[in-house]
């Protein structure tokens, strides 16, 4: 990956949600973990900022952030809640689960190159929600987010496995496929824009064929983060490699040009194992993707039908944060009893959802203080922290062509324990877990309020 690093260092801008990850998933998560320059929102010096003052406050923020120009700000900057959405980075990672029917379709497709096209469409799907310009909350170490999509038996779990550097790992599966991701995005601040590099590792395995597919997504840029109307562009190469056979999908996300020319444009091909073009792909990363059988030059064959692989679902009208219907669903906690470490239980996220910026800031500060207290307690006891649902693998797992190296993105693997643990009974249909009982803590007894139930639920 030395060539990738060199290209970043020589670029003009050399992170959000997000990553995810997608990580990629995480386009609007362009600024990182809050661990420096802490301000207590309850103190007399803390400002109470309404969203109507956001433009003025963003411009004032430049005075504080100008020293970070040209640097990775993932772990350097503390941000106020008025630029945030009531959502977390782990929920951003989960947004790829919106179009799991495309992976189901791939699993039953006989043509190996059409199968690759359906996997590619699944990987494009979360970009439909990546125009959001609000920043998600950063997960607390040990925080989780779980999802059970009963209609096709999909179970998903994400966990924050590292705080410095910030890394999330996630796993999903059903009877037809398995999905794994490690998300460790980095950024570079240019003054009025932020480049987001989706450092990570995304893999999908189809149970019927045993094929493993590896995704390397494009970079993104958040423009006008200080002055002007903020907008997001995704640009560069997007590759889905069939690591088992060597076939691949290669797409190019056209950078937005003057007066919006080329914005959202996606073009590319499905290549066979010998590098020959089989299908031509065309679309827009915020709306659709289609394919057509092509000749060796990449031109559509006469009378070849065009197949729509993916179409972005209609979005809610007038949503303040630009949420999709699926992201709204990911924020809902009615009738479920997730782990006490689940993002939906966070009091700061919930306060922001209710529109109370002051309470959200206070709750966010309180959580960060507890996280620091946890670190000090570990040091005092000379203990270490380990994720509950993921582990570092033994030996040297394979790194597929185009993927980041283990030095750039550490390896994490799913333990499977989550699928076996005793789940809490479902809540009554009208009961809601949001904003209640959040406890990702290793030492809940050290916190003044008891911090809720143990994260080991």
TrEMBL record:
- Record-linked InterPro entries: OSBP_sf, Oxysterol-bd, Oxysterol-bd_CS
Its transmembrane ranges are none
Identify the stretch annotated as signal peptide in this record. none
In which domain of life is the source organism classified? Eukaryota
UniProt region (Disordered), positions on chain:
361-382
* GO CC terms: cytosol; membrane
The UniProt entry's GO biological process terms, in alphabetical order, are: intermembrane lipid transfer
Coiled-coil-forming residues are: none
Q: Where is the composition biased (Basic and acidic residues)?
A: 365-382
GO MF entry, a single one: sterol binding
Alphabetized PANTHER family for the sequence: OXYSTEROL-BINDING PROTEIN 8, OXYSTEROL-BINDING PROTEIN-RELATED
Question: What family name appears in the similarity comment?
Answer: Belongs to the OSBP family.
Give the protein name, as stated in the record: Oxysterol-binding protein
Which species does the entry assign this protein to?
Elliptochloris bilobata
């Amino acid at each position: 990956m030395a060539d990738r690093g060199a290209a970043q260092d020589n670029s003009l801008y050399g992170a959000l949600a997000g990553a995810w990850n997608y990580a990629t998933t995480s386009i609007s998560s362009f600024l990182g973990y809050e661990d420096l320059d802490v301000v207590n929102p309850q103190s007399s010096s803390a400002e109470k900022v309404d969203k109507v003052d956001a433009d003025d406050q963003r411009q004032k923020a430049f005075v504080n952030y100008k020293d970070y120009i040209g640097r990775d700000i993932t772990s350097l900057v503390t941000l106020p809640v008025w630029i945030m959405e009531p959502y977390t980075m782990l929920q951003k990672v989960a947004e790829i689960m919106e179009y799991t029917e495309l992976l189901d379709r791939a699993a039953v497709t006989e043509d190996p190159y059409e199968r690759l096209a359906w996997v590619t469409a699944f990987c494009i799907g979360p970009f439909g929600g990546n125009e959001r310009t609000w920043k998600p909350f950063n997960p607390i170490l040990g925080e989780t987010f779980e999802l059970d999509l009963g209609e096709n038996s999909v179970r998903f779990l994400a966990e924050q496995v590292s705080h410095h550097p910030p890394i999330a790992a996630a796993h999903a599966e059903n009877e037809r496929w398995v999905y794994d991701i490690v998300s460790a995005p980095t950024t570079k601040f240019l003054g009025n824009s932020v480049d987001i590099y989706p450092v990570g590792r995304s893999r999908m395995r189809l149970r019927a064929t045993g094929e493993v597919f590896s995704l390397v997504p494009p970079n993104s840029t958040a423009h006008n983060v200080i002055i002007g109307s903020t907008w997001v562009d995704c640009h560069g190469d997007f590759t889905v490699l069939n690591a088992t056979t060597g076939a691949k999908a290669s797409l190019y996300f056209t950078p937005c040009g003057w007066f919006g020319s080329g914005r959202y444009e996606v073009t590319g091909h499905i290549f066979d194992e010998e590098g020959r073009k089989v299908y031509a792909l065309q679309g827009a990363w915020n709306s659709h993707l289609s394919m057509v059988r092509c000749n060796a030059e990449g031109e559509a064959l006469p009378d070849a039908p065009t197949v729509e692989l993916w179409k972005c679902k209609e979005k809610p009208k007038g949503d303040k944060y630009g949420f999709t219907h699926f992201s709204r669903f990911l924020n809902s906690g009615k009738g479920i009893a997730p782990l006490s470490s689940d993002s939906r239980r966070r009091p700061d996220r919930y306060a922001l959802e209710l529109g109370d910026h002051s309470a959200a800031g206070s709750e966010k500060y309180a959580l960060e203080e507890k996280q620091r207290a946890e670190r000090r307690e570990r040091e005092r006891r000379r203990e270490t922290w380990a994720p509950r649902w993921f582990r570092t693998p033994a030996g040297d797992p394979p790194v597929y062509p185009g993927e980041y190296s283990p030095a750039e993105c550490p390896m994490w693997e799913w333990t499977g324990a989550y699928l076996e643990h005793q789940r809490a009974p479902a809540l009554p249909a009208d009961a809601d877990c949001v904003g209640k009982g959040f406890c990702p803590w290793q030492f809940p007894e050290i916190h003044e309020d008891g911090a809720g139930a143990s994260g080991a639920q």
